[in-house]
Amino acid sequence: MSNEPPAILAEGLTLAYGPQRGIFDFSISLTQGITALAGNNGAGKTTLLECLSGLRSPQTGDVRICGRDPQKDRSHVTQILGASLQDVTPYPTAKPGELLKFLASLYSHPLAPDSLLEQFSVPATTVIKTLSAGQVQRLKCAMALIGNPRVVLLDEPTAGLDPGARSDLYSILRNSAADGVVMIVATHLTEDIDALADRAIVLAQGHLVADIQKSDIGTAEQLVFRARRDLPLEQLLNALPTESMARSLSNDRYLVRTGEGIDSSIIATVASWCAQHGTEATEISIGRNTLSYEVLRNLNMSDQSIPHD
Amino acid sequence: MISRNALRQGAWEFKLNVKNGEQFLLLVIIPIAIFLTLTQTAIIGGSKWDVAGALSVSITVSVLAAGFTSLAIATAFERRSGTLVTMGVTPISRVELVIGKTLSTVYLAAISALILGLVAVALGWRPTASTMLVPVILLLGIASVTGLAFLLAGTMRAEAVLALANGIFVIAMIFGGIIFQYPGFVGTVVNMFPPAALFNCMSHVLGSMPPDSPPLIVSIGVLLAWSVIGTLAAAKFFKWR
Questions:
Q1: Chain B closest CA to A206's CA: distance in Å?
Q2: Can you tell me whether residue A128 is helix, strand or coil?
Q3: Which domains does chain A have, with CATH numbers?
Q4: Contact between residue A131 and residue A22 where contact means Cβ atoms under 8 Å apart
Q5: Residue A287 pairs with which residues in a beta bridge?
Q6: A155 exposed, middle or buried (CB, 10 Å; 0-12, 13-18, 19+)?
Q7: How far apart are CA A154 and CA A306, in angstroms?
Q8: pLDDT at position A302, please?
């Protein structure tokens, strides 16, 4: 078991379109679970997925899918790899049922097309070009899974999905991961990261800037509130228990973490600190640290999307 | 040897094509309309055509429609929709995808030729020994234009391919040496292109050779040359997205 190669291995991968476009010296090894691939637009997420799936040749570096080169050993890798690409509407004049049956015929051990369509709530006999964006998105995910793959790469699979469909998709993908499928899911949505991923890798201008395991992040409670900008945090820290952390976020928000959780005395301390500076703490929320928060922190993005329980 | 995946792709493409009403019009209705117009009226050329001559024209038109116009347009729109890239992550290789698409055009052209042949028989035409060579000429004709179809589809925007492929089809029908023959230097030049070369080959094997038409071997050489040129150009310039 320990001799089994990683499901996805990239070493020193570079594919540059310009000084800040593409991916640069990217390395990763994934053996299990769902990994979120996060980054701003143009960060290199799609380029990375296309390199991993064998659609693009890196200028330097190596890719291995379960120990095999996706380009040199394409016939083997395509049998164990499923991928859903962005901005694609496959065979617009076909019907989902017939398309999945055709695709299933190309694989050695495919899943049943009908049950997959049912699972993804995609009508089998509607022409693809007349499906809604969400239905096309779900069909693409079904196409990625039809070959019963060991490795799945999904590029923005929840784009265009309503909350109910997104939740259903999470459930299907989590079940696949529980069955041993290793996935990379490129996403912009913090909700996707927290609902799906055990791990997150963050790209910025083509460089890997963070590789975060869910198990490694603390789950201590944190307090977020809005108050006037540029208040002196040193005074607040002095008033909080030792080992506390306080910092300002964007949009006039502040974050407080303590080693002992957030209780009424902490809220009172914050309120008092604000009052001392002639302002008021509003929009107070208490939550726990999340993978998406760590991703956003690494991306140095707005905290507006940070979810709080 | 054609791989199983290429055969599956060919069958899949064929299935999509036959369900498409425009394809049916292009591949069956238009060639039959041309065939009936030529044999039953004196609109073109001042007198009714003999059945074998009209059959040569209409089979040539159906091969150009299937192997060039229809293939170029379908491939260009699949390229735009991302279908071709999507297939790049399945067990179908790019070569198998191209072979599958070409097979689909062979099936379509063969069915169209069969229907036209049956209509011709109904009008009194009877096949001869050389008719057995029609499938070979059909394959050569398709090979001579599919590379050019892929070249067009793989290098231009889908809308441009739609306009250009239809435009070339109409120009080939009218000025391509199929319906109207050209004497002298103009005729020699026109005969160096696939539409006229295919028509000349088809006329030879169906026994309706027009006067001043080049020897069969020359027209076969022209089709082979365009097959090589088109395939090499498509292989070099085709972009999958």
A1: 22
A2: helix
A3: 8-215 (3.40.50.300), 221-288 (3.30.70)
A4: no
A5: A222
A6: buried
A7: 23
A8: 35
Which chain A residues are within 8 Å of B87, Cβ to Cβ?
A: 90
B40-51: b (≥16 Cβ within 10 Å) or e: eeeeeeeebbeb
What was the pLDDT predicted at A220?
72
Q: How far is CA A39 from the centre of its chain?
A: 9
Instruction: Look at B90 and A102 and tell me if their CB atoms are within 8 Å.
Output: no
Instruction: Name the residue of chain B whose CA is nearest to A151's CA.
Output: B89
CA distance A159 to A182: 21
- In chain A, % of residues over pLDDT 70: 95
Beta carbons of B241 and B79 less than 8 angstroms apart: yes
pLDDT confidence tier of residue B155, bands split at 50, 70 and 90:
very high
Q: List, for residues A57-88, the tens digit of each pLDDT value.
A: 999 999 999 999 999 999 999 999 999 998 88
Confirm if B173 and B234 have CB atoms less than 8 A apart.
no
Q: Do B142 and B63 meet the contact criterion of CB atoms below 8 Å apart?
A: yes
In this complex, which of A85, A102, A103 lies closest to B85 when CB atoms are compared?
A: A85
- Kindly report, residue by residue over B230-240, the tens digit of the pLDDT: 999 998 898 88
Whole-number average pLDDT of chain A: 89
**What confidence score (pLDDT) does residue A300 get?**
60
Give CA angle at A152 (A149, A155), nearest 5°: 150
Q: Is A125 exposed, middle or buried (0-12, 13-18, 19+ CB in 10 A)?
A: exposed
Nearest to A105, CA basis, from B98, B45, B1, B90: B90
Q: Are B76 and B218 in contact (CB under 8 A)?
A: no
Rg over alpha carbons for chain B, rounded to the nearest Å, is 17
pLDDT of residue A10: 97
Q: What would the two tokens of residue B120 be?
A: 């011709």
- B3 in contact with chain A, both atoms CB, cutoff 8 A: no
Residue B99 CA, chain-centre distance (Å), reads 16
In this model, does residue A1 exceed pLDDT 80?
A: no
pLDDT of A301 reads 46
Please tell me the predicted confidence (pLDDT) of residue A2. Answer: 57
Chain A residues within 8 A of B91 when measuring between CB atoms: 75, 78-79, 106-107, 147
- Find how far residue A145's CA is from the centre of its chain: 18
- Burial of residue B89, with CB atoms counted within 10 A of its CB: 0-12 exposed, 13-18 middle, 19 or more buried: buried
The pair of three-digit structure tokens given for residue B5, joined into one six-digit string: 């995946």
**How high is the ipTM of this complex?**
0.85
Predicted confidence band of residue B120 (pLDDT cuts 50, 70, 90): very high
B81 shares contact with chain A (CB less than 8 Å): yes
| Domain ranges (residues) in chain B | 4-237
CB A249 within 8 A of CB A230: no
Minimal-distance CA residue of chain A relative to B9: A102
Structure tokens at A125: 């006999």
